Amino acid sequence: MVQLSGLTKRFGRNTALDDVTLTIGPGEVFGYLGPNGAGKTTTIRLLMGMLRPTSGTAAVLGLDAWRQARDVHRLVGYVPGEPALYDRLTGHQHVAYCAHLRNRDDAPRAAELADRLDLDLNRQARTLSRGNRQKLAVVLAVMSSPRLLVLDEPTSGIDPLVQQVFHSILREHTAGGGSALFSSHVLGEVERVADRIGVVRAGKLVAVERLQDLAARSLHRVRARFTTTVSAAGFAGVPGVRDLTVDGRSLSCNAPQSALDALLKLVSARDVEDFECSEAPLEETFLTYYGSDQGGADTLDTAGTGPRHAG
Amino acid sequence: MLANVLVKTLRDQSRTLLAWAVSLALIVAMYAAVWPAVQSQPSISGFIDQMPEAFRSLFATSSADMSTPTGYIQVELMSFMGPIAVLIYAVSAGAGAIGGEEDRHTMDLLLSNPVGRGRVVVDKFAAMALGTFLLAAVMGVSLVLEGRLVDMVLPADKVAAAMLHLALLGVVFGSLALALSAGTGRTGLSRGIPAVLAVLAYIVNALAPLVDAFDRIHQVSPFFQYIGHDPLRQGTAWDSVLVSAATIAVLVALAVAGFRRRDVAG
Question: What are the extents of the domains in chain B?
């Protein structure tokens, strides 16, 4: 459905996106993750034909995103990162304008979507809250029943209840064979809907992974307390164990599934007073692998409250 | 309603256009109101004749006789106030056409629909041109109708010809603003450059009789196409219309080409 090959975009001397190659299949939701300013929005705007690639190509169903932008747009619904609307137009007027430009009658579908999202289409865009503007942008993107949805942080500013509605709309879309590219700077936003995730950092696609595989590698937080003092050296040899700290009689560490057996045997060789092993949230696993290993400035914004810039 | 980019753009401009139309009708009414006083003061023509030649060239275009309605309107409205009003509207509309939507970040929304960039530019141009012609028409109708009330009788066909040339003058500079806006996305620059060029074109045309250098180039000035042949007396000059139309066509083509090849600001 989507094919990015060697996609590169430079603004002057600044390389915003560097040689990104990526395929998204039919019916697939691709979660596109990265910190703010990493290149998410640049990728999406290249795919939407708003930017001209410096080199490489972006294609939707074989149509070039830059040279055949108009044909691509017939197949695609798009929620921009900063959903700007026409302040003086109401929701209904936005729907009418976009539907006219697409030569379709999308008003009934738009009304149904707005109803599900609890959005009043009679109000002027300038009177809408940030969340409601986001909802209107989603309605405009989804109403034409596109083959591909390109969503630049679509759920930012939307409350969790409405997010669930949005997720079910997205699942209906993929059940019908539609695909989606869904960007976010928080894994939690995409983990429930994405089939695969890609991580972009400083303009480079650093990882693409099935969500299932990531879950299989998910870390377990292990804590143990012993009756006697232990030394860190006794546990350091287990492969895969991270964040090991030993303090007198207690031990804590993070370990992938594969390391649990060896770790457990080492622990049980001593006199255990207390033992705890729990699966860490996916977010934490994700951060361990892709998040904070490149220094503070590059870390993902886990709280989701950071300032938003075009990525 | 909202059937395409053209209708949408005109709808966006409706308040601006209404305000401009009312202002123009009032300006014409003001000139009409003063006319009886001017007519009864034949010395005013003498006053103009006594002006320094450069001054007279700038404000009175060709040899205008202030004691006739045609001469009066030519001096008072056609040589200064009329062009300024039409140019301000056309250049603002042209400069805001593409860059304005980018400034408000709505261009992503518009272009995510299956509308070609060329179509967007052409529709924006058409809205600017229609608005300019509408304002010129309001000015012309006001001149004829309000003039009748005060016995300032102007031939409707000549007024129509003058307004056609005035509108074309506006659309030429509006198209230049549009081309800059489409090519760069920078609204301020797209407004400023045509404004400066309009002033230069005005001066070159007005001072051509006095400055040899200007006299050699004044025929390229859009102001020469507009008023060089004295449309309020001579009617339409089709060769000037043709030159203006060709200039506009080239500028719109440049606008389309410029917008098609650049990144859209998001």
Answer: 5-33+60-261
Q: Which of A23, A97, A44, A37 is nearest to A307 (CA)?
A: A37
Tell me if B263 and A50 make a contact (CB, 8 A cut-off): yes
Q: In angstroms, what CA-CA distances link B40 with A66, B34, B68, B80?
A: 68, 10, 11, 23
Question: End-to-end distance of chain B based on CA atoms, in angstroms?
Answer: 27
Which of A138-147, A284-293, B68-77 comes out lowest in average pLDDT?
A284-293
Specify the DSSP element, H or E, that contains B24: helix B5-39
Which one of A9, A48, A86 makes the best mutation probe of the B interface by having the most chain B beta carbons within 10 Å?
A86
% of chain A at pLDDT higher than 90: 54
B219-246 pLDDT per residue, tens: 888 998 898 888 888 889 999 999 999 9
b (16+ CB within 10 A) / e for A275-288? eeeeebebebbbbb
pLDDT confidence of B171, banded at 50, 70, 90?
very high
Helix, strand, coil % over all residues of chain A, rounded to 5: 35, 30, 35
A-chain residues within 8 Å CB-CB of B262? 52
Tell me the HSE value of B129 on the side-chain side, using a 13 A CA sphere: 19
**Residues of B contacting chain A (CB within 8 angstroms):** 1-5, 8, 12, 104-117, 261-264, 266
Q: Which residue has the tokens 């008003």?
A: A107
Question: How many other CB atoms sit within 10 Å of the CB of residue B263?
Answer: 13
List of chain B residues whose C-beta atoms are within 8 Å of the C-beta of residue A97: 2, 8
Q: Does the beta-carbon distance from B264 to A51 stay under 8 Å?
A: yes
- pLDDT, tens digit (0-9, with 9 covering 90-100), for B103-137: 999 999 999 999 999 999 999 999 999 999 999 99
Cβ distance of B114 and A82 shorter than 8 Å: no
Residue B115: its chain A contacts at CB < 8 A? 70, 73, 101
Q: Do A80 and B108 touch (CB under 8 A)?
A: yes
For tokens 């169903």, the residue is A61
Buried b (16+ CB within 10 A) or exposed e, A79-115: bbbbbbbbeebbbbbbbbbbbbbbeeebeebbbebbe
What pLDDT sits at residue A18? 94
Q: In what order do the strands lie in the sheet with A63-64?
A: A14-24, A2-11, A55-60, A63-64
List CB contacts (< 8 A) between A83 and chain B: 109
Q: For residue A204, count CB atoms less than 10 angstroms from its CB and return exposed for 0-12, middle for 13-18, buried for 19 or more.
A: middle
The confidence score (pLDDT) of residue A310 equals: 41
d(Cα A80, Cα A152) in Å, to the nearest integer?
5
Q: Give pLDDT, residue A244.
A: 87
Q: Is residue A301's pLDDT more than 50?
A: no
Q: Do B115 and A51 touch (CB under 8 A)?
A: no
| ipTM score of complex | 0.88
Expressed in angstroms, the distance from the first to the final Cα of chain A is: 23
A106, B120 Cβ separation under 8 angstroms: no
Please answer whether residues B170 and B89 qualify as being in contact, where contact means their C-beta atoms are separated by less than 8 angstroms: yes
Q: Tokens 């205008």 label which residue?
A: B64
Please say if the pLDDT value at position A284 is more than 80: no
